[in-house]
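Predict the 3D structure for this chain.
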Amino acid sequence: MPWDEWDQLKAAAADKDSAQMQLNGIPEEDRRLLPQGDGRTGGKGLKHSPKPWNRAAATAHDLGIGTGTAKGSLTKGHAGMAGGLEGLASLAELRSVLTSWENRLKAVRDECEALEPKLRQVPKDLNGVDVATGSKADGVHTPKGGDAK
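Done. Predicted structure below.
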């Protein structure tokens, strides 16, 4: 691209109304859709809700219990099979399938038990972030109306 063409493009861009950066980046009509917080955090829309995290933790808890129950039922259901199927080639396969499912269900239950307290901790941690971020935002002073011209 020749230099004179580049200079023309730069001049044309400078002649147009330059776009101004907006720190919040959200148009006014969309801001009304944001959660408004409860005044503790200073900044509107900064407050996180603990509800989805607690629901996820409760789901992990329920899934862990359900998985443990299913594992117990599966094991109990296979308890008497060995006597009736002794000598059949399928008995070894059934034992292999049982062991595989028991291991999988145990892994799911263990993961749910490990995940539940972590999910319950998230809203507590985010609340700290909300307060810290709100305090930092409150410390920023802007001219009236937000226009520095």
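DSSP finds five helices and no strands in the chain.
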